[in-house]
Amino acid sequence: MTETRTLDNDLFLRALKREPVDRTPVWMMRQAGRYLPEYRASRAKAGDFMSLCRNPELCCEVTMQPLERYGLDAAILFSDILTIPDAMGLGLEFKQGEGPVFERPLRDARAIENLGIPDPETDLRYVMDAVRTIRGALGNRLPLIGFSGSPWTLATYMVEGAGGSDFSLIKRMAYDSPEMLDTLLAKLSASVSLYLDAQVRAGADALMIFDTWGGVLAPADYLQFSLEPMARIVEHLKRVAPQIPVILFTKNGGQHLEVMAQTGCDALGVDWTIDLATARARVGDRVALQGNLDPTVLLAQPARIEAAVARVLESYGHGNGHIFNLGHGILQQTPPEHAAAMVEAVRALSPTYHAQE
């Protein structure tokens, strides 16, 4: 079992455990990204996106960049959710203007049966080296979040062959050949479990599972194809690293909060389509909540950003168990100073919600 380290700033970890804090911790999904000029310089140095992801020193450099700009309460590993499918040999490429594209998408049972489970310390060694490098650079300053895509989300890319689709191919597989999809999801559940466990051993202090496309499923299909595989991963992680908090995030998944909370996870990410007060009432004290400012708010002027931050904090209300975040990743066109305005507003306005009675 990995020992819990003592950190200079542990607000994020305490909030995940619903322990008292003196202000609401804040970080941003995709906080190291294209909206920062220093990130664009690092990516140009690498040559292309996957070369950046495969360079542990540059991954560390871009992970640290937003920490130098903002008063954030957590770092998140710089990587991509498609590292596991890439390690499975599907030929991942990021094409300009198209996003991720797989050369060999999965379209039949034989291709799925032939998939191997990647070894995190060999097939994905560059990710583990990045975690170790970032951990060393952080020291005991802040917690480091490791992450993976959910099995369902990874499967959508692997079957469709690209992002931005109508999901017709994988949904047809779900309806016509559910046993084929179950086989794929079982392999992905095992792969993600090993991958996240390895990130913990390399130095991650918390884990997040990004279920980007779970919200496109009908309720019964969500339970079978999205939630059940994530629940298996949470069960594995709680067995091998019970001290490490786990966050589940299903985009457009507000209707599923109760069943998500039953997986044994520590927190749920919430997007901007559900009011935090409603979400909190539905999950009670079973889990912490993370969210949920609409990322497009950061395109507005700082005064508007501060007002929107105030509404999110008021919606969650007094007490513990809230991590402030965006409802999805920060947009590329966001001015960096607008992100700073959000962070500063959280730090200034949130202490009143944690004042002791």
What would you note in describing this structure?
The chain is an alpha/beta fold and 357 residues long. It has one domain (33-287): TIM Barrel. The chain has 15 helices and nine strands. The chain has helices at residues 11-16, 37-46, 49-53, 56-69, 83-87, 109-113, 125-138, 151-160, 168-176, 178-202, 219-240, 257-261, 276-283, 302-316, 336-349, and strands at residues 75-76, 92-95, 99-102, 144-149, 206-211, 246-250, 267-269, 288-293, 322-326. The strands form two sheets. Strands 1-4-5-6-7-8-9 form a seven-stranded parallel β-sheet. It has a two-stranded antiparallel ribbon with strand order 2-3. Helix 2 packs antiparallel against helix 4. The protein is globular. The relative contact order is 0.14. The mean pLDDT is 95.
Helix content: 40-55%
- Structural class call reads alpha/beta
* Separation, N- and C-terminal Cα atoms: 38 Å
Number of helices: 15
* Physical arrangement of strands within the biggest beta sheet: 1-4-5-6-7-8-9
Which CATH C-level class is it? Answer: Alpha Beta
β content, as a range?
5-15%
Low-confidence stretches: none
Strand element count: 9
| Topology order in helix (H) and strand (E) letters | HHHHEHEEHHEHHHEHEHEHEHEH
Shape: globular
CATH architecture title: Alpha-Beta Barrel
